[in-house]
Amino acid sequence: MHDGMPTQGCHPVQGGEHVVKGKLLTGNVAAAAGAMLARVDYVPAYPITPQTEIIETIADWVREGKMDSRFVQLESEHSMLTAAGAASLAGARVFTATSSQGMLYTIEMLYNVSGWRAPMLLANVSRGVAAPIVLEPDHNDVLAARDSGFLQFHSETCQEVTDLVLLAYRVAEDRRVMLPAIVNLDGFYLSFTREQVILPEQKKVDGFLPPYEPVTPIRASRPVSRGSSVFEGFLYSYFRYNQHGAALKAKEVFQEAAREFEGLFGRSYGPVEGYMLDDADYVIVMSNSFTALGRQAIKRMRERGVKAGLLKLIMIRPFPTEEIAALLRGRKVVAVFDQNLAPGSGGILYPEIAGALYHVRGRPNAILPVVGALGGKQTSAKELEAVFEEMMAIDREGKTPTPMFLMREEELGRVKKMVSVAEGKS
Amino acid sequence: MATATRFRTLKDMPTVDYISPGNTLCAGCGGILAVRIFHKVLGPNVAWVNAAGCMTVTMSYPLSPLKSNWLYTAFASAPAGAQGVRDALDVLIAKGKIPTTEDMKVVVVTGDGAAYDIGLQSTAGAIDRQLDFYYLCYDNEAYGNTGFQVSSSTPYGSATKTTPATARFPVGNVAKKKDLFEVWRSMKAPYVATLANSHGVDFLRKVEKGMGIRGPKLYIALAACPTGWGFDSRDSVELEKLAVAAGVWPLKESVNGVVRHTIVPRVLTPVREYLKTQDRFSHLFEPEENAGAIAAIQESINGYWIEAGAREGFQVKVPEPTQAKTPSS
Questions:
Q1: CB contacts, 8 Å: A69 with chain B
Q2: What sections of A41-175 are H helices per DSSP?
Q3: Could you give the CA distance from residue B180 to residue B116 in angstroms, rounded to a whole number?
Q4: What is residue B322's DSSP assignment?
Q5: Which long-range CB contacts under 8 A does B301-305 form with residues at least 24 apart?
Q6: Nearest CA in chain B to A109
Q7: Degrees (nearest 5) of the Cα angle B96, B99, B105?
Q8: What pLDDT sits at residue B3?
Q9: What is the full DSSP assignment across B40-106?
Q10: pLDDT of residue A388
Q11: What per-residue confidence (pLDDT) applies to A19?
Q12: Of B69, B100, B105, B121, which to mutate for an interface test with A (greatest number of A Cβ within 10 Å)?
């Protein structure tokens, strides 16, 4: 099913006048390739759709001798993360992957591993969470890890998956940070979609990402206690504040690393990325693969003469407050496209964006909450255009934004039909 | 079964200690005593991997009574933590990133709550993968660190905070103690053994034997618990001795699935003698004796030893269950 990355699957494809320069890789294989390029020592794993192709690919490469790592399949994601964090504390560079229910199942360990300051990497292939059970993506899974202390980097393309894996290791293992990280990619839209990926040259990667040097690893010659208890709030607060400080520091470390990365590989990354922002009055904030749809909608709005723009979040932890404030200052209306839902509250990122803008002079007049694409719901350019039209109406009429929950008439019709089948009426 | 051993009498117990005195555990704790003896045999190069329990609170920043490595993981997944440490050491040694002198014995240490209940799944996984590790369960037959609630290790007849003896529930806990030894054995662990602090030579030899075996080596140590069981802390070791003498705590081992009792109490002490020593069983005697419950406990012990004797070819003289009904004092 998956490609043997180095030999097969690297067929430069000629399509029309475009010559694809990289290899055609799925997002899953792109994640595995990142792990291989990072020369990870250890991959504890547990299968779950749509992530499984990552661990299958790595298992293959390890067994074929293409990857010098130890691969072991655990009996749950909870154990997988425990093994991952413990191995990181013992000095190994560790990579693993999960999705959806797996992420929820291991939440306890996310907090532990982050508290251990074990800089391992977890690829999350986003998938909506049960119930009802669903396979396609939204971000309730990865955002459930929002407060765990894992750094979070979100990718729009398969190229970004590979690149962010390498960048994430650089940041996580930096002595100023020492925190684990998540690289997120959307299930199906990236995980099973082949895109061209230019794989960085191993030699250059080795220069960019030297071997992991643990600070106080578990050693016979110099024993350590890790995960010790603290029984007083002031001491607990001290460690928690430290963790927060390190997470905040990760932004600057990421920016440093990204500059070096650009010099070596020619691709540039920041905590956020703007699209047609220069003169934009109406800006939609998005993340992950659906950003590509946002770009299309903006092109169409621009064709209609509307000054539309997009802000993509790459880094969600630490939260790039200053970058968001700088890029959204002076806009007329901003919409936050949350591909997730906190029932009883709304979108999860909306309050974070609003918080980032509250004290900003010249902040947007209104911030429109939008929830959409739950469970990977197909989202048409029309739906996103409707968001821009709503932003314009808010601006024109000076009204208070009311949350939008995207669903098309035609979809609602299908729902009604299925409900009537379930009720035995047809 | 005679094999070379460096432990012939209690005098052979290593004098070296890897746990400092003055730790935060209760006086008379059978759990920390088991950890201490276990460590003496393993030597200095150990990585302990712990699940939530009484031992967790001994490692309180910035102090540790241990001279070896310690990692607290979570309640359910200490064996997976051992997997990570073991695999990391193996891969780093194989890649030449650390010298072989950094190799260690990786030991999971948990109470019965983790071993019998919440962590059983991760233990099963580690055994399936034939992880080369030790598991030391200090078994005080309830969730001791949270104040003594029932676990699946709690024996029939014990009162706990969540199975209190009342007029409507005069027996306390009515469930039977899970046979973790058999559970682990059935999972094809190459070595499984029970331990008691009162039987030091047997204890030392079993740890020594495990050191010669590759794969999962799992131990269940009786951990007399003064606060949970309700007895004077100075009597801990005596009480464990009584548990063995009454046949409540069989000392045995399984090597590649073959079970052998290492200490056979030829004449079982009536179980009431054991039950009477602890507050957790006091409701079986006061305000009036629950002769039926005590007889049921004795019958279950008798049945165990008659069956074991038949299988291994030894004879044990068991008390009459009814004998338990007559007050001995």
A1: 91
A2: 52-63, 77-89, 100-105, 107-115, 140-143, 158-172
A3: 7
A4: G
A5: B301/B246, B301/B247, B301/B248, B301/B268, B301/B271, B302/B247, B302/B268, B304/B247, B304/B250, B305/B247, B305/B250, B305/B265, B305/B268
A6: B74
A7: 115
A8: 64
A9: HHH-S-EEEEE-SSGGGGGSBTT--SBSSEEEE--SS-HHHHHHHHHHHHHHHHHTTSS-GGG--EE
A10: 98
A11: 56
A12: B69
User: Min CA distance, A175 vs chain B (Å)?
Assistant: 19
In this structure, which amino acid lies at residue A256?
E
Q: For residue A189, how far is the Cα from the chain centroid?
A: 13
If one counts every other C-beta atom within 10 angstroms of the C-beta of residue A53, the result is: 23
Give me the pLDDT at residue B66, please. 95
Q: Within chain A, which residues score under 50 in pLDDT?
A: 1-16
Residue with tokens 């496209």: A337
Query: CA-to-CA distance for A192 and A237, rounded, in angstroms?
Result: 43
Asked whether the predicted pLDDT for residue B71 surpasses 70, the reply is yes
Tens digit of each residue's pLDDT (9 = 90 or more) over A81-140: 999 999 999 999 999 999 999 999 999 999 999 999 999 999 999 999 999 999 999 999
| A293: its two tokens | 């749809």
Q: What is the mean pLDDT of the segment spanning B85-90?
A: 98
Residue B1, pLDDT > 60, answer no
Cα B255 to Cα A158, B19, B215, B216, B252: the distances in Å are 51, 29, 12, 11, 10
| Interface predicted TM-score (ipTM) of this complex, two decimals | 0.95
Q: What percent of chain B has pLDDT over 70?
A: 97
Angle at alpha carbon of residue B183, lines to B180 and B189, rounded to 5°: 110
Total length of chain B: 329
Query: Is the per-residue pLDDT at B325 higher than 80?
Result: no
Do residues B229 and B279 lie in contact, with contact meaning Cβ atoms separated by under 8 Å? Answer: yes
For chain A, the average pLDDT equals 95
Strand pairing report for A333-338 and A282-287: parallel
Per-residue pLDDT reduced to its tens digit, B182-209:
999 999 999 999 999 999 999 999 999 9
DSSP state of A376: G
Residue B255 is which amino acid? V
**If you write DSSP's letter for every residue of B147-185 in order, what string do you get?**
T-B--TTPPTT---SSS---SSSTTS--SPPP-HHHHHH
- A 10 A CB-CB count for B157 gives 25
What CA–CA distance (Å, rounded) separates A117 from A150?
10
Is the distance from CB of A245 to CB of A265 less than 8 angstroms?
no
The pLDDT score that the predictor gives to residue B21 is: 86
pLDDT of residue A18: 53
A218-254 burial, b at 16+ Cβ within 10 Å, e below that, comes to bbbeebbbbbbbeeeeeeeeeeeeebeebbebbbebb
The whole-angstrom separation of Cα A106 and Cα B35 is 29
Give CA–CA dist A7/B291, Å, rounded: 76
Residue that the structure tokens 């079982």 belong to:
B268
Q: Do A82 and B95 touch (CB under 8 A)?
A: no
On the question of pLDDT at B62 being above 50, the answer is yes
Which residues of A make CB contacts under 8 Å with B?
Answer: 41-42, 44, 68-70, 72, 74-76, 78-80, 82-92, 94, 108-109, 112, 211, 218-221, 223-231, 235
3-state secondary structure B131-152: CCEEEEEEECCCECCCCCECCC
